[in-house]
Amino acid sequence: MSGTFVGMPAFPTAARAALADTQLRHNLAHATHTIRDKRARVVGEVEGWEDLRLSGAAVKESALRDLDRHLVELEASLTANGATVHWARDAAEACAIVAEVAKAHGTDEVVKVKSMATQEIGLNEVLAEHGISAWETDLAELIVQLGEDLPSHILVPAIHRNRAEIREIFRDKMAAAGRAAPEDLTDEPAVLAAAARQHLREKFLRAKVGISGANFAVAETGTLVVVESEGNGRMCLTLPEVLVSVVGIEKVVPTWAGLDPLLRLLPRSSTGERMNPYTSTWSGVTPGDGPQEVHVVLLDNGRTRALADQVGRQALRCIRCSACLNVCPVYERVGGHAYGSVYPGPIGAILNPLLKGTGDPQTDSLPYASSLCGACFEVCPVRIDIPEVLVHLRSKVVDGHRDDRVPKPEAAAMRATSYAFSDARRLALAERVSGLAGRVLGRFGRTTLPGGRRAAGRLPGPGSAWTGARDLPAPPAESFRAWWRRTDGGRSSVVEPVETTDGDR
Which key words tag this protein in UniProt (predicted)? Predict the structure, then answer.
C-alpha cells in the first residue's frame, strides 16, 4: 500500500465527476486563492527568497545522497537518547509494529497528530481491526474522520468542506465519538474550533498512547520535529505515557543547522505564516518530562524505489507544504479526491507512481493529471521540478504498454507514423495523400486559425475526442517535396502558386 485509496477510479473518471460538483469547485477556489495570496505576501517580505529555496533544496539533496549513512546515524542517536527504533519495509510491517506497542499497554484508543505517513499506511483502519480507536486531533482531520470522509489536501484535509457543512458534521457525529457538540453550535469558525477543543480535551487527558509523524528527523542529534498551528500536536507529544512516531526515511536532515532554511521555508509556503505557532522537538526519553517510552518506526514503503529513480528521486525532497496544490489549475477545479490518494495534487501525481510503481490503471493515470504549466515548480520551496518528473513518468507508463498485444490508439498512430517516416517512398506517398486531404479539409474546414489558415474541424471516430479540445490545422495542399520539384529547388525565375483555397498558400 502506498497512499492510494483502494477502489478509486482512474483520474479522468474521478475528475469528470468532481467537475460536475459546483459547490466543491466554489469551496476549492475560495480556499486555494486565500492560502496562496497569504503565501505570496509573506514570501514577498523575504529578501533572497530564491537563495533560501536553493539552500533548502541543497539540505534535502545532501540527505538523500547519503541516506543510508544518515539513517544509521539517526538510529544510533535515537537509541542513545532512550528511544526504541524499528525498521518497516512496508505498510503492513509498520502497522503491525504500532498495533503491537498499543496492545502491549492494554489500551483501546490512541490520540494522533496529523500525519501523512500514518494515512499512507492505513494505520487507523488496521488499529480498528485490533479493537483500538485512533482519534485524529487536528481540526481538519477531525472533520474528515467524523464525516466518514477522505482527506483531499495535504495541509487542509477538509478543504472541500465549507463551514456550514462542518457544523452539520459536528452536530450529527460528535456525540457518538465522545463529547457532543453544544446545542447552540453555529458555523462561526471560532465557535466550531471551540467545540472541537472541548471534544478533544477529554481524549488528550485519558490517552495512554500518542501517535505522530515527523516533519524532519535530525540524524546528528536524534531529534524529531513536528510543526503545527493548533497545539493539538504538542498535547499528543507530551501528555501520553507512550509515544510512537512513524517517520518516512526521506524526512532525515543531516545536521541541526540544516533545519534553519527548512523551518523558514515551510511555514511561509504552507500556511502563509512567518513561523509556525508550535514547533515541537523531542529526542528520545527525558525522565519526568513527557512520554517515558518512545518508539520510532522508520518507514520505507516504496521510498527506496523512488530513490533509485535518477529523475524522480527529487520528489523525496518534498516537505509537505502543499504550495503546489494551491497554485495548480487542475487541483483547484477537481480537488484532492480525484487523485485517489492521501497525496493529491502535483506532488501526489509524481509521488504515488514513484512509491508504488507503474502498472496499475489508477496510478498510471496520475502523471497525466497536469497541464505542465510549471506553476508548481515556481512555488516549490525545495525546487522539485514536478513537470520534469511528470514527463519522465509518462514515458514510463508508455514504455509499460509497448508489448501489449492490442496497442492503444495513440500507440497505433505513433507506430503508423514511424512506419511512414522510416522510408522515403512511404513518406512521399503519405505526403500526396496529405495534400489531397488538405485540399478537401481546407475547403470545407469549419474554423479559421490565426493568419487565415483553415482548420480541419473535428475528426470522425476515435479522433473526435482529440480534436474536440484542439484545433487541427488542415494539411498543406502542396508538400515541400512537390514544391522543390516544381520550382527546381526555388531556382525558377517564376514560381506559380498552387491553386488552393484562400489562406492556404
Answer: 4Fe-4S, Electron transport, Iron, Iron-sulfur, Metal-binding, Repeat, Transport
| Secondary structure in 3-state letters for 27-45 | HHHHHHHHHHHHHHHHHHC
Amino acid at 480: F
pLDDT computed for residue 338 by the predictor: 95
List every span in the chain annotated with CATH 3.40.50.10420. Answer: 11-305
pLDDT, tens digit, for every residue of 474-501? 677 777 888 888 888 777 755 555 554 4
Which cell is 20 given? 460536475
Label residue 20 left, alpha or beta by phi (over 0 means left) and psi (-120 to 50 means alpha): alpha
Helix, strand or coil for residue 449?
A: coil
Nearest to 314 by CA among 339, 347, 341: 347
Per-residue model confidence as pLDDT tens digits over 218-261: 999 999 999 999 999 999 999 999 999 999 999 999 999 999 99
**Of 319, 343, 324, 317, which is closest to residue 35 (Cα–Cα)?**
324
* CA 16 remoteness from chain centre: 19
Helix axes 424-444, 409-421, angle to 10 degrees: 120
CA 65/CA 195 separation, integer angstroms: 46
Cross-strand pairs, 111: 135, 210
Which of 3.30.70.330, 3.40.190.150, 3.40.50.1000, 3.40.50.10420 would CATH assign to domain 11-305?
Answer: 3.40.50.10420
Residue 110's pLDDT is 97
* Rounded-to-integer distance, Cα 323 and Cα 154, Å: 9
In the three-class reduction of DSSP (H, G, I as helix; E, B as strand; rest coil), residue 474 is classed as: coil
Per DSSP, the three-state class of 422 is coil
- Buried b or exposed e, range 91-116, using 16+ CB within 10 angstroms: bebbbebbbebbeeeebebbbbbbbb
Q: What's the CA gap between 355 and 389, in Å, rounded?
A: 13
Q: Would you call 260 helix, strand, or coil by DSSP?
A: helix
| Amino acid found at 464 | S
SS3 132: coil
Q: How far apart are CA 34 and CA 475, in angstroms?
A: 46
By DSSP bridging, strand 252-253 and strand 216-218 are parallel
CB-based contacts of 364, cutoff 8 Å, min separation 6 = 10, 353, 358, 397, 400
Residue type, 262: L
Q: Tell me what the mean pLDDT of segment 355-384 comes to.
A: 95
Q: Look at phi and psi of residue 489 and say left if phi exceeds 0, alpha if psi is from -120 to 50, else beta.
A: left
Provide CB contacts within 8 A for 348, sequence distance 6+.
3, 336, 339, 341, 342, 366
Model confidence, pTM: 0.85
- In this structure, which amino acid lies at residue 22? T
> Residue 207's closest CA among 309, 105, 118?
105
Number of Cβ within 10 Å of residue 484's Cβ equals 11
